[in-house]
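Hi support team,

I'm opening this ticket because the web form for multi-chain structure prediction keeps timing out on my end. I have pasted the exact lines I submitted so you can reproduce it. The total is 901 residues across two entries, so I didn't expect it to be a heavy job. Is there a limit I'm missing, or should I split the entries? Thanks in advance, R.K.
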Amino acid sequence: MTFSKEGKMWVPLKTCKLAVAVYNWKGDVQCGLPLEIGDSVQIFEENGGWYRGFCIKNRSSWGIFPTGVVSIRPCSVKGTGVNAIVEPKDDPLVKEIANVLREWARLWKKLYVERETYRFSAVAKVMRELLAGRRALVAGTLTQDQTRALRLRLVAKLDWGNR
Amino acid sequence: MPSATKDSTILKIAVEMLNAPETQDKVPLLIEFDQSQPLSSIIQVQLCKPWGLPDPENYALQFSESNNRNYITEKNRNEIKNGLVLRLELSPARTVQEILGKINSGTEVEKLAALEKLSILSSDLTFALEFINKKGLSLIIQNIESGKFSGNCLKFALVTFVELMDHGIISWDILENPFISKVASFINNLANAQDPKVIQSSLSILENIVLNSSGKNLQVENEITIPNLVSHLQNSYQDSVIQQNAIALINAIFSKADVTKRKTIAATLSSKQVRNVIYDNLIAMSEFSRNAPKEGVGTELAHQLYVLQTLTLGLLEPRMKQRADSQEQESQEKIKELRRIAFENDGASAMEVNARRQLSFSKDNTKKLGFKCEIDPMKDFNETPPGILALDCMLYFSRNYQEDYTKIVLENSCRADEHECPFGKTSVELVKLLCDILHIGEPPSEQGQSYHPLFFTNDRPFEELFCVCIVLLNKTWKEMRATTEDFIKVFSVVREQISRALSSSPNSFEKFRQKINQLTYSEITQIWQQERTNREVWESHARPIVELKEKITPEIIELIQQQRLGVLVGGTRFKKYSSRGQRIKEKFWFVRLSPNHKVLHYGDCDEKSTPSIEELGNKLPVADIKCLIVGKDCPHMKDLRGRKITPQLAFSLILKSDSVTSLDFMAPDEQIYDYWTDGINALLNEKMVSKNFENDLETLLSMDIKVRLLDAEGIDIPKDPPPIPDEPEDYDFYYDNN
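Hello R.K., no limit was hit. The queue was backed up. Here is the completed structure from your submission:
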């Protein structure tokens, strides 16, 4: 792969982009932003084969990374310049499940350390169901009827966990 | 060894001379072949001199491999490898001179020998150039054309011609009609048995003329008839090269012919008789040879069958690209006929239908056919592809499978819910899908080899395919309990069903129908599910995931340690055993770790109580533990003598002090055993190794990874690491922060 030599300058993107890391990158260059696979990043500017932005989980730390390490995702942008905020264009339920799972994952590890064996395995089971259901929603291979039924089931699971 | 071998320009080779001018062969020579020396001087100094040959310019070197007998020139001499045996032969110029002489004025025997030699040498570009320059090609053409060659001479002459032309240095336009007629006559002359090589070569020559000459294809078309070529498919030699070349010639004529001629050819080819010849002699045979790959003809024949199939299907292209015209009478009639067959086929209810017709025949029934545009159904055929071809297919279905057709239309028009599958709309989409799957309208590719045997079993294969698939589509629609919103999803399933059923190469439409009916919706979802699972398995071993796992494993191990130490602080009641491993009835002891993880407190207790630290009389500072021992190495398991105790649950703490040497445990179950040994190992800064540890690590790790990858759901992880570009030339960022 060759990179265009024309883009020798840092150019701002017309609108910010949202991307997800599809590989790990140590960030071992000047101003490098280390990335782990699965990290979401917001991108502000580019220069040839490089992007510059921050990791959503740490908005204060800006850095550069190779364009090939991330995959762009559809998003909506609010605000402009350094104050822009990107939101993934996911289905609201898909987004909600992701948030809930992140929250639960923390609590779930606590249950483990505290040896709440029963609740630990019950929560794990529901988390796996939510993961599988969310995956099916994202894949989009279900019919409308199936999708509706799945949504109801998933919402019920969320309610169960939030109680 | 002489230092010369280190020099890469010097090769050690042998040279022999088989056709020496003297009566006896020259003794083969071993020479050091210097790649930096001109060939002529090597021949002169190192070969002709020792062999005593005058006129070294009359000689040339040749390879003597079974697959390479080419002359060696300054251009290809780098192909010479250490240890090769080369031959010294008469130079191309001298050989050409000799051969031409024999052809012009030799005896029959000499002529034949010269032509045979020529047919072999002609594949060598060096020789071919020399021969063509000396007007050899013209001589061959003249002699073939005038009929001067016959029998084996003709065979070698034709092979020579094919080889010479194969180099692509001479244009096919040099050939005149008489020559074409002559070659065609070898093919048309079915009465006299010809040498297979003559037919093979003649077919190949004509194919090349059709494909590569400008305008001479008409002459070939006039000379050769398709039925004649078809008869070569069933030749008595069962010669697969003849079959292959014959079908290649058919394809060539087919592809170059004008539209009218093409239709005639297609009609001939799709007639039952010809179809059967093709099927029986080529497809059934090649199916057979697929099991015996030694045949080796499979790929070229498969390619020709693929070309034939593509060309035949290509005839549908004009219909596929033609939009419907609302005013056009023919198409209007077709829609009327669709309506008639659907709603008037039942003679018994004709009266009723008549009565109904008077009410709102046209509007209502057209609606029932399920078109997108109910007022003017012709608009449904405006999109190309599939254009008017969709209407053709629908009509074919209604005429030939009336029962299936009426069932589909009536069933869906009677449904009151949103689950109906509109016949018109789905038919148009299905024809579009089929055109896409079969690449209709695309020229045959150079490498294509995928032909569908069942397409050679019917004269309307495309329409038949539609008929099977429209029934399937309705079945799948029902299985999915689909609504009109699910249109796209149903089609993604149907595409999968059709592609999979076709790729199993069914050899009849009946087999195709069976296969596709087995591929139910649930079968397809299972296949997809399996593919997702496979992908997940792959991903779990993908490099970035493995790296991430390694990175977070220490955090997870830390969690497990905390959990295990929690177990120890909580304490456990153990049954008491004597120092020799004897169970002491009704006696228990309790052990727990102090909250600061520094001291183990233990003491006797009864069956139910959970004593606090203060109630436990004995103390063992963790610092006094020397090591952990498990299983039958424990002191209390040393002397089992056939007692029932299983040592797997035993563990001992070996102490540094001399007074008490060990603290011996017998866990009540595997989990407690695992928790305690892990906990002790954690206290001693040793690795945890229990089965429960492995399980917990896997459970916690895989969940953690899944949650970390939530944002990457549905995005492919690259197989290879992404390229890292050169570092940017400057760091003058646009946004001036950080």
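A quick check on our side: Residues 208 and 258 of chain B are 18 Å apart (CA to CA). Let us know if the file doesn't open in your viewer.
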